[in-house]
Write a structure and sequence with these properties.
The chain is built from 14 helices and nine strands. The protein is α/β, with parallel strands linked by helices. The longest helix has 26 residues.
């Protein structure tokens, strides 16, 4: 597994500030002590992979002993990949990117789902890239950015900036015609959506074949624009029982006004109206029955459930991690990522229940994306309360 780390040159500040615009964020391999692979200036156009990054990616590809697609993993909110590795730390390699073993239960790790290893951490295979990014901020950091909470900082500033680095990586694989799958959870889906949007806006399509989104915190209006007429498959696992996503929708008010289409996120409201995109609502009776009946293109039955079945995750009761911690969900996600037959065309032909029980479902195409405020006065109107 190749580990890529994105870190911002500065966390605070506002986009209207020239110092913020000219800051150069960093992409490194493994830990920060390793040489920088690429410096990415925020206000500059999307660059190609530079010599150091290109060489590192090509060397990793060359040493693989198979031709399986590269699977890029994207974690969500509240991680710091530079934190000291330890159980319960903010380091994603201690949980979602961790190798299963005595300290890391297999259910907390994405690695077995992408084929990097089995549930015991054995049978290693170099198939995955763990894209680690700073997705949390201190009160000092979000206050300096003139936001009212750390989620605003992560969702509205950090995710789009980290997405630029991911877009560079995707662009390089596209230039090499290397097949790519993507598995993203929570705010990692915004990272991915923003990266794809930036790549396509720059005229690149990459070589993405399939994107699997779990509990997506990307905004529906943004996803509708980024994935419009996309030449690859997107399968979005969503849930009406996810208790975290509504909090994220509210946290970005007033930039994304509560109760407005601009605040809706894909993991709670789905998308619709895209022939290459399928929404699978894990708490919908029709989907549960379809999965249990073995009607999937694999011929296998899947016992899917939206509510967490155990407390393997410390905040399991919020049902935001059940997408990949519940055993039956894990089997479905594994096959959606790895199995050639689990594509949108085959799933559609098998009459998979596609849709979400949301009054806004299917009404996001063509809606305006609210611009992210660039000045402190815009971000924190007079009288705003810091949460």
């Amino acid at each position: 597994m190749l580990k890529l780390f994105w870190t911002p040159a500065r966390i605070g500040g506002v986009p209207a500030d020239p110092a913020w615009q000219n800051a150069a964020d960093s992409l490194v391999a493994d830990q920060a002590a390793n040489p920088q692979l690429q410096s990415i200036v925020r206000a500059a156009p999307l660059p190609p992979a530079g010599p150091a990054l290109a060489a590192r990616l090509d060397a990793w590809l060359a040493q693989r002993s198979h031709a399986a697609p590269v699977t890029i993993m994207a974690h969500g909110f509240d991680y710091n990949p530079m934190a000291a590795p330890a159980p319960d730390s903010d380091d994603p390699f201690s949980s979602i990117y961790g190798l299963p073993g005595p300290a890391i239960p297999a259910q907390l790790s994405l690695l077995p789902l992408v084929g990097e290893c089995d549930d015991q951490g054995a049978n290693r295979a170099d198939v995955a890239i763990a894209f680690a990014w700073l997705s949390e901020g201190t009160m000092a950091a979000f206050s300096d950015a003139c936001w009212n909470n750390d989620y605003q900082l992560a969702a509205l500033d950090l995710a789009p900036l980290a997405a630029k680095a991911l877009a560079v990586v995707l662009g390089h694989f596209g230039a090499r015609a290397v097949p790519v799958h993507i598995l993203a959870h929570s705010l990692g889906t915004r990272l991915v959506g923003q990266a794809i949007g930036q790549l396509r806006a720059a005229g690149g399509a990459g070589s993405i074949e399939r994107v699997i989104l779990l509990g997506g915190a990307e905004f529906c209006v943004d996803a509708a624009a980024a994935f419009a007429d996309c030449p690859f498959d997107v399968i979005n696992l969503a849930s009406g029982q996810d208790k975290v996503l509504p909090l994220g929708q509210m946290a970005c008010d007033p930039v994304r006004g509560n109760g407005t289409p601009a605040a809706c996120v894909i993991g709670f409201n789905g998308l619709g109206q895209n022939p290459r995109w399928i929404d699978l609502q894990l708490d919908a009776a029709g989907l549960v029955a379809w999965c249990a009946a073995g009607q999937a293109p694999t011929g296998l039955a899947y016992t899917v459930q939206a509510a967490a079945q155990d407390d393997v995750h410390p905040e399991a009761w919020l049902n935001h991690w059940a997408y990949y911690t519940n055993p039956g969900n894990r089997l479905l996600v594994r096959d959606l990522v790895q199995h050639a037959a689990m594509n949108v065309a085959a799933l559609t032909a098998a009459a998979v229940p596609n849709g979400m029980a949301s009054v806004m479902y299917g009404h996001f195409n063509g809606l305006a994306i609210p611009p992210t405020p660039a000045t402190c006065a815009e971000r924190r109107p007079a009288g705003a309360v810091i949460a």
